[in-house]
Amino acid sequence: MKIQKKRPTIVFDFDGVIHSYTSGWKGDSTIADPPTEGINFAIYDLQKDYEIVIVSTRCRTEEGRNAIIKWCNQHGIYFDKVMAEKPPAVCYIDDRAICFDGNASSLPEKVRNFKSWCEVDTDA
Question: Could you tell me if 95 and 118 are in contact, meaning their C-beta atoms sit under 8 angstroms apart?
Fold first, then answer.
């Protein structure tokens, strides 16, 4: 009998990464927008080698968690788990993150000037 090796985990934030979130917050169980362009293909490619975990504060309610599962299934987005809190992982994919580069002195400026990908002015 061959023992299946556990795949390492990658964690995806839901709103702003998987769900395009262009309409903003509408409640735990209302997911109004389409997927972010190309995200289903990226996740499909990664799931061959990684366990895919989706995290969201929507999961604070069962209705929110079920809404994510239903929405992902409707849009053909593969996942292994949906959770409220981030588990240990190889990496975290989040639209509201600053990648720490070892230079703590640069953090105050990075935080004060932070904009998510959808807030960045592309005309500038």
Answer: yes
